[in-house]
Amino acid sequence: MEPIRRRQLIDATVAAIHEHGFADTTVSRISALAGVSSGIVHHYFGGKDDLLEATLRAIAAELRRDTTDRLARASSPRERIDAVIDSNLDPERFTPTAVSAWLAFWSQVPTSARLARIQRIIMRRVHSNLVHALRQMQVPSERADRIAMGLGILLDGLWLRAAFEESGPDPKSALALVRDYLDSHLRELRHEEPA
Amino acid sequence: MEPIRRRQLIDATVAAIHEHGFADTTVSRISALAGVSSGIVHHYFGGKDDLLEATLRAIAAELRRDTTDRLARASSPRERIDAVIDSNLDPERFTPTAVSAWLAFWSQVPTSARLARIQRIIMRRVHSNLVHALRQMQVPSERADRIAMGLGILLDGLWLRAAFEESGPDPKSALALVRDYLDSHLRELRHEEPA
Amino acid sequence: MEPIRRRQLIDATVAAIHEHGFADTTVSRISALAGVSSGIVHHYFGGKDDLLEATLRAIAAELRRDTTDRLARASSPRERIDAVIDSNLDPERFTPTAVSAWLAFWSQVPTSARLARIQRIIMRRVHSNLVHALRQMQVPSERADRIAMGLGILLDGLWLRAAFEESGPDPKSALALVRDYLDSHLRELRHEEPA
Amino acid sequence: MEPIRRRQLIDATVAAIHEHGFADTTVSRISALAGVSSGIVHHYFGGKDDLLEATLRAIAAELRRDTTDRLARASSPRERIDAVIDSNLDPERFTPTAVSAWLAFWSQVPTSARLARIQRIIMRRVHSNLVHALRQMQVPSERADRIAMGLGILLDGLWLRAAFEESGPDPKSALALVRDYLDSHLRELRHEEPA
DNA sequence: GATGAATGAGGGTTCATTCAT
DNA sequence: TATGAATGAACCCTCATTCAT
User: Fold this and answer.
1) Is the CB of C1 under 7 A from strand F?
2) Domains parsed from chain D with CATH numbers
3) Is the CB of A16 under 7 A from strand F?
4) pLDDT tens digits, one per residue of D127-183
5) Is chain A touching chain C, with at least 3 CB–CB pairs below 8 Å?
6) Mean pLDDT score across all residues of chain B
7) C182 touches chain D (CB under 8 A)
8) Which nucleotides of E are covered by protein (CB under 7 A)?
9) What is the pTM of this model?
10) Exposed e or buried b per residue across C113-148, where buried means at least 16 C-beta atoms within 10 angstroms of its C-beta
């Protein structure tokens, strides 16, 4: 019963955040969306904060799982980089619902140590995945770090814009924009090499 | 008296958001930080929401003023682009306090029509300033639009990371990263031209 | 549970109005009198206004119920008129508590559309009951209307005075006063007939 | 200056009560209507309660003045009774504004000792004026008292209904109703006398 | 395991009152 | 005499949390 209820409540939390915003996401609204009583939240989670933390962990785990799957199927360093980018911009995850949930959590990061910790882990994972693949492509350490950071920042910026609806590019252009950034930097590297 | 009190309260609002986060920014906390009574907020602003809106408008106006000043001093299209970038990454404004306030407001955008409207205006201004300057450099319309969007997304991503402390680049590297993005695209354009 | 709590709160509201007056009837006072927490008001009624409306409806329903019962037991038009008068002046309802609650609601009628609506219905019911019975006694329509209005006004005046304690007649004299008014008008009619 | 300001504020208080109801009659609204600052109320009256008391006193004094004038012009006991009735139903005073102010004050009577005292004086004056005139017409003491009380109750009931708009008779019918009550009782007395 | 009635702290807001000017 | 900026207590209401069932 427990895993079912926990998932129900986490899904309902994401839905509630998207629908009403973080500030108006109340325990009753979440439980109403989940079709259960309000007391259940404290039964399966310690309280509202624990549910929120679990929700962030859950959507983070989803992203990680997808990235891991794609990485496993990749057969070259370049494909490994694309795996990371693609999983971040996968239209199935790059939805208004997901994106506004992320934004809501992000806004709590500066003042919530618990969420900040999780957020840091997520970011570092993306970064290290990118750096790792770049290093395999013979990109020098310091350079790999810079490119990975640029890619990470672009991805974050795209997610942010996606939360504002209409003011960001569609998933396809978003992908092109990030790939373009990567390509131009790799091209640049190749031109330098002979020198 | 009015302009003084309004500024006091707006400054206190930014400070409160930075210190406690958007959700825990209460009228009493704001007024305590401003060193005035809680009733004063409703005297000078209609209520909490109006104060929040005024605060977003104020920090947006500050950014616009700085951009306008820099644009006025620019003597070439390239300098105009740099003016926009520099004012967005000016270390004086690129502070944890300012940046977490922005993030807090951003998180309200998906569910607050009032704030969304202001946010849209701010974004569009940055975008059109960039596009305008790029067009003056003979960049084709569609291309100018894409580069401007890329720059805007990078800037947003950088602000977002700045709010997470430590996980973003320092102001100097941030500037380099954005300039680098611009340069590589302009270089690319020049290579295409002869062809 | 719901009907019990609702009744508790409605009774407490009447008591609070009697004790402190309408203006000083706060939600906390009501809930304290009812022996429950303040939050409960919003759980069982939407808010304070809804509780107040429900309270007026409840005391109006009580009056109507009593009138209906008496009307059912009446076996002549004259007894039907007495039924209406008696139920309005029944010592059990003609108490300081009940009477000051009515006055409090009356004072809100000129500025509260919700309460005005209910008040209008109550008044019309008394009036039409009286007119109906008078018509059965062969009193001409226009005359019946006038007598009924006079009776209604007397009843209202008596309730008003009852709220001022001491300055009104005791229930018994009140009853005599109203019956006397009715009798003299009926007598008058009989004298006219032969003419 | 003082008498001018006091009158301004008292008039504004009556207007505010009529317009917004007793509960929403705030000091700022009153002073706004009077065209003066809010602080002035505490300068000329001790506070809000004192202003309210002064307002009740003022409208009571107005009624008394009018009654006194009419009584002075009356040349027979019967005219003296009519004087009292007429001044209570004078269309100039029997207005929605005046009437809703009275009702508002009445509703405070059960819980305000200060206002109750004034109210008691007003009622007693009307009563004693009526009794006095009836005694001059040779009506036995106990009978005069009863008739005067009936008249007083009718007048109160009429004022109450006037506050409910539409549900009461027009000033003319109101007058007829009260005079009719008086006449039928006097006639009755004459019939008894010979017996 | 699950409910939802009940609590009460804390939120935004209003407003009578004070007081420096 | 007159102002209106400023206060802070008290209002209604929301909601995370508890707990008897």
Assistant:
1) no
2) 1-46 (1.10.10.60), 60-192 (1.10.357.10)
3) no
4) 999 999 999 999 999 999 999 999 999 999 999 999 987 767 888 899 999 999 999
5) no
6) 93
7) no
8) 1-20
9) 0.91
10) eebbebbeebbebbbebbbbbbbeeebeeeebbbbb
